[in-house]
Amino acid sequence: MSDLYGNEINRIAGNIAKMFGNRLKFTDSEDFDDDTDDQSIDNSGVSVDEEENKGIYIHPVIMDDDKKRKWAVNKLNKSIKELEAFIPLLKEKILNEDDKAFFLINKLFPTGFQLHFYARNLSFNKKNGFESKIVGLRYIRESGDWLDTSLNLPLTKTLLFIGESHGRDLSINEISLIGNDDEKLDFEVDVTAFNYSSPQEVRRPFLDYVVSKAESLFKYTEKKLTEWESYLDWSENLARQRIKGCKYIGIEVDANKYQLIFTLAAHNKEYFDETLRYLKKGNVQAFDNNCSTDEWVFNYPKEVKRRIKGVDLGNCMGEIEKFSINEIGDKLNFIFNKQYRKNNQDYQISLADLKEKYGENAFFVKLAYKMNQDDEERLKDIDPENISELHSLIDEIITSYEPLGFLACSEVGSFALINRFRRTINSMKNGENFFASSWGLAF
Questions:
Q1: Who contacts 317 (Cβ-Cβ below 8 Å, separation ≥6)?
Q2: Rounded Cα gap, residues 358 and 166, in angstroms
Q3: Which of 47, 53, 84, 101 could lock onto 190 through a cystine, CB 3.0 to 4.6 A?
Q4: Considering only CA atoms, which of 336, 311, 320, 338 is closest in space to residue 413?
């Protein structure tokens, strides 16, 4: 089916499935139950042919004092700017931005002619219960047409004109670049109609017929959105059950083995019995303190407002050492002597700090990971006898990570992406993204 430029919504289903299908390999819970009907839209029985002498008046939305119209005009102008990014010649053809929509409409749907195009019912029900009658018109491409000869647009692409139907006229508020199919798609309506220069001239309108007889692609997509929301809920719950993490309070480099060694801290030894199992499996990242609601104990937040980025770690090379707070001796001198910045102030960890944060049963594990290939190559290039240069590079490698942070499964970074998908779904449900809905998404 058609592809969309400048919009990632058309990949939402595939992205969700791919993201969780790849990242939740360790899943042993029940499979997601999707017993919904996957029946697709078939509007093949609806058409408007030339013998019916139907008419339409196609025009860009006009600015007035109505806030809704202002929003629509802004949306139209934004869509044209997006078109210019993919069709550079469009900007060169006409410089007056206010005329671009009118210019495109008249070039592809000239008045005074009988036209052939494909219509899509994109109507949806507003929150107040009233139906918003939205129709999209797909321009049918031919070799040597204006888009080909004047804009150098390949025949694999075309334009979709989306607007609000008023019975006799269609007020365009969005023009989108989409993939071009040679044949009519199942959810489209084949239309042959006369384009007039005013709504008063239209004697036999057909837009209401399309809205009433053709199944709405938007409403169909809305049903699929419910399925996607259920899948997101299931995936998020599963990830939350499985996600594990642990505080690290120091980083060392083993230059001989090309390994990073993280010192992990917890309230007791038992905490590591389950957590280490996950941290040794792979797909582990180093995060700053923002991935936890507690600065010292891993507690992933229920709501994530932004993407939490981590640094990928190599394969886990195993445990180097384990010890309790009573066995600490000089094992953490490198931490006690190291200062780090917090709220623009220098702060130094002490044994008393660790006892305060983790108690008398505090336990520590040094866990080694293979360093990235670039750092490994840089270490290999240094003369081992050049101690100064070696120490300088080691310090550089260590400072590329947060001095204090968390090691956690990489699924941590997925929750903000889940929320982004949710926001996209909500915008489509509210009728704010006709562009995506007009394409038709299949889960």
A1: 257, 259, 368, 369, 370
A2: 68
A3: 47
A4: 311
Which residue, chain included where needed, has tokens 């770690």? 313
Query: Is the pLDDT at 440 greater than 70, yes or no?
Result: no
Query: Dihedral sign, CA of 191, 194, 196, 200?
Result: negative
Structure confidence at residue 306 (pLDDT): 63
Please give the biggest Cα pair distance in the chain.
Answer: 94
φ/ψ of 86, rounded to 5, equals -105, -15
Please name which of 42, 21, 379, 90 lies closest in space to residue 234, comparing C-alpha atoms.
21
Q: Judge contact between 251 and 398, C-beta under 8 A.
A: yes
Could you tell me the two tokens for 299? 């507690």
C-alpha distances in Å from residue 352, one per residue of 326, 334, 348, 357, 387: 12, 15, 11, 9, 33
Tokens of 301: 């937040």
Q: Which tokens belong to 91?
A: 């900007």
Which tokens sit at 221?
């997509």
322 DSSP assignment: E
Inter-CA distances, 207 with 54, 189, 264, 347, 410, Å: 9, 11, 66, 69, 50
User: What distance in Å separates the CA atoms of residue 173 and residue 432, rounded to the nearest whole number?
Assistant: 12
Q: Which helix (H) or strand (E) holds 222?
A: helix 217-242
Extents of the domains making up the chain: 42-214, 244-413
* Torsion angle of the four alpha carbons 367, 371, 375, 376, in this order, in degrees rounded to the nearest 10: 110
Query: What is the per-residue pLDDT across 266-302, written as a single tens digit (0 to 9) for each?
Result: 999 999 988 998 899 878 989 888 888 898 999 887 7
Do the bridges between strand 134-139 and strand 169-179 make them parallel or antiparallel, or are there none, so unpaired?
unpaired
Number of neighbours of residue 49 by Cβ within 10 angstroms: 12
